[in-house]
Amino acid sequence: MLGKKLVTAQKRGETRALCLGLGMVACSMMMYFFIGITIVPFYTKSVWTTETVCKVLKTNIKDNVFCPHNEGSEDEENFPYPCLQVWVNVTASGQEVMLYQTEDTLERNPKCSYVPDKLENSKEVKARIETIASNFKKYQTFPCYYDPGGTQTNVILSRLYPSKGLLFAFLWPTLMFTGGCLIIVLVKISQYVSVLSAWQ
User: Where is the chain membrane-spanning (predicted)?
Assistant: First the structure.
């Protein structure tokens, strides 16, 4: 009687472990799909792939410009912010070009090097932009990214999705997939050993 209870408990445990492993594999596949349709297209779309050294030539803060809260929105309510323009000399080409914070900055407003994400307080935004401008004046030389193909003559300070970030994004679903497969394999080995022992 006790043996039957132990066998039943073992089967229940194996079933739960097998469901856990299959669930982990399914979740990891969903994460792979989500990363594939969100992050990967932005990574492959970016042409600023080569790192070089930029040297600040001049910085300029123009009067307030307007930018919509949502990209592509037809709403006329725009928020004003000071337009920071940073011109740099690219070591790789020796050209004088405009620097942008990321790829998204160029799409949102090609006239400014920096576009604030939110307007919580106009004074805070102005102070932040002045701080960024002073940092560029303080640190004259820094790494940046340019387009080796020449389709974009400007440069960006940092990529939205760098190679390390993409690898880090794939790390967690890979670990989950590996763990799920390992659980499934261990359950199958346990079942095989149980069947072999019972046969002997």
Answer: 20-43, 166-187
Dihedral angle over CA of 7, 9, 10, 12, nearest 10: 120
| Alpha-carbon gap, residue 14 to 34, rounded angstroms | 30
Q: What is the dihedral of CA 90, 93, 98, 104, to 10 degrees?
A: -90
pLDDT tens, position by position, 118-127: 656 778 888 8
Q: How far is 81 from 117, CA to CA, in rounded Å?
A: 11
Instruction: Tell me which amino acid residue 154 is.
Output: N
CB 46 within 8 A of CB 159: yes
Contact 169, 35 (CB under 8 A): yes
The pLDDT score that the predictor gives to residue 163 is: 79
- Determine the average pLDDT of the residues in 177-182: 94
pLDDT at res. 53 = 92
- Report pTM: 0.69
- pLDDT at position 3, please? 46
C-alpha torsion 41→44→47→50, nearest 10:
140
Q: What are phi and psi of 89, to 5 degrees?
A: -105, 120
Which two structure tokens, joined as six digits, stand for 18?
A: 């097998």
**Which pLDDT belongs to residue 67?**
57
